[in-house]
Amino acid sequence: MDVLIKVKDREGVIHELQAPTDMAMNIMELCKAYELPVEGTCGGMAMCASCQCYVLNDVALPEMGDDEEAMLSEAFYVKSNSRLGCQIPITVDLEGLELELAPES
Predict the structure, then answer these.
(1) How confident is the model at residue 89 (pLDDT cuts 50, 70, 90)?
(2) 77: which of 10, 54, 62, 71 is 20 to 30 A away, CA to CA?
(3) Based on the number of CB atoms within 10 Å of its own CB, is 89 exposed (0-12), middle (13-18) or buried (19 or more)?
């Protein structure tokens, strides 16, 4: 089953992405699959913040882990709604999620 996730890129264009829930993907991998400008330099280990995004609506997300919290405490352009895309697994609960890519640091 796929869920719809909307991602606003750095130029303000909104992309409607069909995200498969059966492939153990995360938001960073989804953005890369759609060729959005997300680096994911560390390969999804919560060590670089190049997949930082802002959560724009109220969708239940998994709790932020210690590694993600520590990385965001050192990252640029962090807001109260910042998350690392690599730390958000794609599940049916993400249906309707709206995100914005953080500026490149």
Answers:
(1) very high
(2) 62
(3) middle
Dist. CA 99–CA 81, nearest whole Å: 10
Contact 68, 84 (CB under 8 A): yes
Chain centre distance of CA 76: 16
- pLDDT for residue 105 is more than 80: no
Q: What is the pTM of this model?
A: 0.95
pLDDT in tens, 24-72: 999 999 999 999 999 999 999 999 999 999 999 999 999 999 999 999 9
Question: Rounded distance, CA 12 to CA 71, Å?
Answer: 25
- AA identity, residue 71: M
- Residue 1: CB partners within 8 Å, gap ≥ 6? 20, 21, 22, 92
Pairing type for strands 52-55 and 14-20 reads unpaired
Distance of CA 56 to the CA centre of its chain: 11
